[in-house]
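lol ok so funny story. i was supposed to be doing the assay writeup but got distracted and ended up predicting the structure for this chain instead. priorities right. anyway since i did it might as well share w the group, maybe its usefull for someone
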Amino acid sequence: MSTKKKNESGFLVQGSILAVASIISRIIGLLYRIPLTAIIGDIGNDYYGAAMEVYSILLLISSYSLPLAVSKLVSTRVAKGERKNAYRLFKGALIFAVISGTIAAMIVYFGAEVITVYLVKTPLSIFALKVLAPTLLVVAVLGVVRGFFQGMGTMMPSAISQLIEQIINAVVSVWTAYMLFGYGTRIGAVLGNSKQYGAAYGAAGGTIGTGLGAFAALLFVLFVFSVYRPVYKNQMLRDRRKGEESYRNIFFVLIMTIVPVLLSTTIYNISSILDMGIFKNIAAAQGYKEKTYSTMWGIFSGKYKTLINVPIAIASSLAASSVPSLATAFASRDIPQVRRKVASSIRFIMVIAFPCAVGMGVLASPILQLLFHDARELPARMLQVGAVSIVFYSLSTLSNGILQGIDRMKAPVKNAAITLVLHIGVLMALMYGLDLNIYAVVWANTFFAFLMCILNGAAIRKYLKYRQEIVKTFLIPGIASAIMGGAVYGVYQLLIKTVKMNAIATIVSIIVGVIVYGVVLLLMRGLNEEELKPFPKGYLLVRLAKKMHLMKK
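and the output, tada:
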């Protein structure tokens, strides 16, 4: 294999490591939301979701862009042999993280009442939001250390720390939610509102796990860094370059790198909190009762988004791993290699996103019954309508990372701003004009992701003179997914009528779907041997494919 092909393979392998960790983390997150939802209910999910939305926005503003910025800036310095400057940048980023994280934590803690009452129109989410405040500082520092390792070309510390974070989060969240739900119910009984106070305190218990999980992950990456530090110090001794980068310059470069990423990610993600405010205010104006629209939003944030975000996590992971790799290739002006990396990453994402979207749509109600014991029509219809957004969000998330990796920071910002304005217009039109209630939010989010794909794709084409391959990237995965969807539907209907057990019918249908999709994809030459190897267990998959005569020996 040529050096270029090895580099591209390594880039996808690193992306795969982070993607697998993210998927496992999302699955753990999905699994713990099942007992959490059983404890706090849909209304509790509304309180939990409102607090998490505000936390996410403050996290975006204070530190979310730090790992991406640090990984990019460290990788470019290491590529030039500037180990000392890379380390100084890491220390400067830590100082920046402590300052920004502390400010964000104080804003959340002391401004919680104003935010929950006036901004998100969910007053009882104040308890959960205040609990999350210290986590902002912890996650800021954690992000810098993860970004340093990613910039050094290894995703393993980030991957393992993600798993530790989510495991601690899951265990603690469920236990503290159960304990505080009972406590809140007793307080609510005195105040004459036991159900809502129980849900509110239970939601606060759920957010305790978020903080302790992040703290455990921070301890792990700091331990790994302490072990790695002597090795890196020895590498720094071989750095004979004169002239250290000043901290003044480091802070300037950090800010100039962070601000465009910050604007892009904030605009890209602020739509969630705007959606919540717009939806609740319009729903109230249209005569919906508070309990009704609170329950709708609880289903949207606690079930719909939880399920949709599992496959989207792959795109987020690959985007994170692609930035340092693309930045290194772009810094060396190897544009053909950059184009190949872009093509391989988009194909990787589409091969996974298409079947996930089809499977989620076909098995919407069975999955909800399996995980949440929820057979209602509303959640299932939401999942069926919004399943296609998996493809659009996956591609738009990845394309954001690609543009940031090739140093075109302003493009995602401009595209996200344009899309956000149009998204709000679509949401309001669907709610006022068609009275689609929560479905309006689902449709508007799908439109947002779709338009971001179009605008980001145009920007990549413009700056890289990149021509997107269509057949193997989109057409073949789409056809294979459609065939898989038909097989999954048929198997489920057969089993549910004969076995009459949803759990067995759903699990067997998913397994059949994976097999059918893989076989059809390989028969249609959607992936060749070199493209399959970077996938998780890729070499094993190649051997199996050859034994089954699905791939040439």
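Residues 5-12 have pLDDT under 50 and may be disordered. The first helix runs from residue 3 to 79.
back to the writeup now i swear
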